[in-house]
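Re: beginner question about structure tokens

> Can someone show what the tokenized structure looks like for a real chain? I only ever see the sequence side.

Sure, here's an example I had lying around. Input first:
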Amino acid sequence: MPIIMRKRDFRFRRLAMLTFCTSLIGTWANLACAALPIEKQATQWIDQQIQQLGLQQGWQSVSSSASVQLFNANHRVSPCSTPLVFTAPLLPQSPTRFPLVISCQSTNGPWKIRAQANVEIHLAAVAAVSALPAGTTLSAADVQVMPVVLKPGARVSVITQIEAAQQMTLKRAVTAGQPLTALLLSSPTLIHRNQAVTLVIQQEGLELTTGGVALQNGSKGETIRVKNSGSGRIISGTVRDAQQVLIRIIE
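And the corresponding structure tokens:
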């Protein structure tokens, strides 16, 4: 056999063997995954979802521990030869406790079962430094970021950025170390109608300040109408603090 033909035959055999090995590895991985207990596969999937949700929400130092309760006996479920499929539409709204549907889509014996996931989430959140009474307007000295644990069934509306809590008012008294949630806070009126304010005008990277008068009451982040004292022009801006209103001019 000519040398060139032997080389071609060797390359073909090597390519065929590589394709076979790759297919074998993929099959082995699927079988290994399918061999794990249903609860184990479910908790691994939940941990991945909590990590993704944490990235979307801007959570810091996130970890989780999940348990899964199946609503039908394991002996009634045949082994699945393919990776399980998990469905949990309510997870984003209630990530510490939610219903879970687990299904096998294998052609030789598909099945579907229902379950409940209970998740304990660890993350860094804004909490009160000390006990504070209702009506307190929070300052930087009143809050700090610390590790908190959210038990199954707990709400996850915790605040993770200190800036989001500053200048907010407590609706109820809190204890030292208690995580702050959006439901505990309200926006106080920082600027009142007819109050003299500073207009911070931003345009194309430049920032100028001038005097103005508020024409409406406003809380932090709210949009109110103001009057430029110099030009007499009435414009809208965003309340930045108890004295400043931010005006963004886009041309």
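Each token stands for a local structural state, so reading them left to right follows the chain. The longest helix spans residues 3-35.
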